Amino acid sequence: MATGWTYIPDFISDPAELLRTAINEVAWTQQMRSRQTASLGIPYNYAGASYPEAPWLPAIWDVALAVEARFGFTPTNCLMNYYPTGEHSIGWHTDDVTILAPDTGIAIVSLGETRTLRLRAGVDPNFEYTHLPLAAGSLLYMTADLQHTHKHCIKPEPGAGPRISLTFRHLTHAPPPVTTARWSRQGDGQGG
Ligand SMILES: O=C(O)CCC(=O)C(=O)O
C-alpha cells in the first residue's frame, strides 16, 4: 500500500450542485484526447496543454478556502478534469511538483460518479497497485514526495456517469505555455 496520501470523505457538502455549476459555467477545453480540462487562477501548463490566467468561479473559490483551512496553503490554481462518461480517463503520469510551494501537495476534490484512482510504484517492476475509489464530495491529498515514487491514473470504467475532479495546487509561479508534449517524458499516458 502506497503512503503519502490522505482520503477525506464528504469534504464538501453539496457535490451534486457543484457538479452542475462546473459543467455549465466552466469554459472546458478539448486539449487532451481523453477528457476535457480547464484551469482557474494562475495557469498550470502541463501535459501538452496551456491555459490563460482565469478568474476563480466563486463556488470553486469556496472549496479552495476549505482546502486552505484544512491543509494550510492557499491554492493559486485549480486544474479541472471533466470525464463526461466512463470512457474518459487519464493515463499513468506524475504531476509536476517542481513548481509547488514548499511543503505543499495536491488536493483533489471529486464531483459526480465515483471513479478509481490507481497508484503504482514507478520503479517497481512488479507494480505495487493501490486502488482509491474517489466518491462525490471527497478529497484526496497527495504529497509532493508521492509523485517521486508513484504514478497515478484513472482508467476507463464503461458505464460510469459524468465526473469532475478539481485539483488544487499552490503554484509558486505559472510555467510558460507548453509547446511540446512534456507528458511523454513524465509518464506513459496522457496525464497532467
Ligand atoms: O481526476 C482525478 O482525480 C485525477 C486527476 C489527475 O491525476 C491530475 O490532474 O493530474
Automatic annotation (TrEMBL):
Superkingdom, taxonomy of origin: Bacteria
MF GO annotations: dioxygenase activity
Signal sequence, renumbered to the chain: none
A Pfam family hit: 2OG-FeII_Oxy_2
Family matches, as InterPro entries: AlkB-like, AlkB-like_sf, ALKBH3, Oxoglu/Fe-dep_dioxygenase_dom
Positions of the Fe2OG dioxygenase domain: 74-172
GO biological process: DNA alkylation repair
Name of the featured protein: Alkylated DNA repair protein
Organism name: Enhygromyxa salina
